[in-house]
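[step 3/7] fold_predict: job queued, chain A
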Amino acid sequence: MKKMTLLLVLLSVVLAFAACQKSAAKLTYPVTKKVDQADDYFGTKVADPYRWLEDDNAEDVKAWVQAENAVTFGYLDKIPFRPKIKARLNEIYNYPRYSSPFRAGENYFFYKNDGLQNQSVCYVQKGLDGTPEVFFDPNALSPDGTIRIGVIGHSTDDKYLAISRGEAGSDWSEIRVMEIATKTELPDRIMWNKFSGAAWKGDGFYYSGYNKPAPGEELKAKNEFQKVFYHKLGDPQEKDVLVWEDKEHPLRYVGAETTEDEKWLILGVSEGTSGSEVYVKDLTKKDAPFVMLVKGFEFDASPLDVVEGRFLVHTNVDAPNFRVVAIDPKNPARENWQTIVPEKPEVLSGAGTAGGYLFCHYLKDANTKIYQHKLDGTPVREIELPALGTAGGFAGKRDEKILFYTFTSFTYPQTIYKFDPATGASEVFRASEVKFDPSAYETKQVFYTSKDGTRVPMFIVHKKGLKLDGQNPTFLYAYGGFNISMQPAFSVANVILLENGGVYALANIRGGNEYGETWHKAGMFDKKQNVFDDFIAAAEYLIREKYTSTPRLAIAGGSNGGLLIGAVMTQRPELFGVAFPAVGVMDMLRYHKFTVGWGWAVEYGSSDNAKDFPYLYAYSPLHNFKDGVCYPATMVTTADHDDRVVPAHSFKFAATLQEKQACAKPVVIRIETRSGHGSSNLSKAIEDLTDQWSFMFTNMGVTPIYK
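[step 4/7] structure written:
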């Protein structure tokens, strides 16, 4: 029976290609069966005819994936300039890329990609003038280069590194330990971790872990009861000591940190992607209890350091734009907090200590401003950055004499700077070698008005001297959620667009952190429509100002941004020419039933609640297609190992869109293998970008310069 199902689906593909050859007017898609499935939400019956696509282990789903990919790649293979775009991407990606160094004792570690390596390689050298040697190379661990390794913590005595090893793009990771002196792995293996660091204490570390999922459910089952354990080097995982669990609240995250002097264990607990509760434990006292430092879960709080017995905490408690406070664990009540860095009109997006100083990262209209303070909050200086853009770094231990930071902007490839915290002097440590002439391009920041009168910023990047005639291929990107800011950054991928006379636009819509918690809350829960209205207004601005026109306007976003694209293309299908919803949250009624989706209810709300269901149903992309509508040319993208936003969202969305599409504009779904919520290696990223730009140019009627 399973073989018969596979044959029938594949037969539909053959028939589809035959039809395409007779008439290029409209793609013929695989026949996607419908089932009689409906759910009752507080008296409203909601059909879910493609529910069967949620079971990615089922043979008929595997057959459907194979059939859809055959249509998609059959379509893409016919684009004549596609190989030239891929060749150009390989050419411009082929340059050395570095991370900032970090120090462990006398050793400095950094990541480097020679150019086209699938994964960056970790190097170590003695001092800043030492000779770099390979510390570990993930590329040697799998034939397809889809194993990733990252450092998640080094021991206080600088003898060991804890590393996180993941495969095929899944969020699941395995923690291992490497001895720095010998560059060898210890036998320690810690399985079934997600979003965990390694907080060292003595000859072991604390980490966050889950129970082993049932066979076959690893990539879709709801992740519950995250716990904190202590692992002693050399012990099997079965001997790890349980430090924290909450049997009454299965749907909470918990992460562990230790202070630099290993005197305190810090636990951050959250019910989702925002809102936190903080506990601390004095490790110098035997059997000391956990003390609640900050009560949850209405606000965010992140401990930074301990100074004279008090915790420095970055928080938006009583400060929507965030501030830094000092909290005494012996008297943690809010009325006893002392403000170290007060709230300002600009959002304090992050803070950290290094070199005996406190560094505060602000956003001014989505551009970074960094200020250095003494640990008591006394201002020292503003760090002079090379231009408007995005900076990050300034991390390290108390005794660091040299710090590093990175700077980038849309036309400023990432550059690493060395910084002297004593004098405030910066100098270039490593400049980018990308073959790109920034002098040929310009960046503007404009402000436009959204539907409700809100002023929203947007960056626009293009060649100097661009003619505003409404004919420029334009790529509009945004995210709009989870308190995440979209800031200027150089992207090699966008060179393809820019050198072909295109326009790249980034809209800083509500839901993010560009203007603090007020901006975030204006795009949450029942106010999520503001996010979509902001994006629609950005598109209307680009058309009104003649940067582009509907046929040459592509829109794109991933994850929560994929939800954004799904929502706006169902609300205003006539406004956009091409759409790229990537790994999107498309079923707003069932997203919380898979893996860590429950953690997004603090942002979206839940269809399990009568007050949330109406607004979720009103914008849920999957549930708002209409008959007789011409939707934009669309390429949905997802991957078989995406266990954050499970592929079922994209499967059901694409099947419904193919069913409803009332014109010849193509609707395809590109389903990557051995990849996850993002591309699992560089080769796959380049292939995905090749297909994105090829699909976009083809459906805009634009022939790129690579013929």
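[step 5/7] annotate
The mean pLDDT is 95.
The first helix runs from residue 2 to 22.
exit 0
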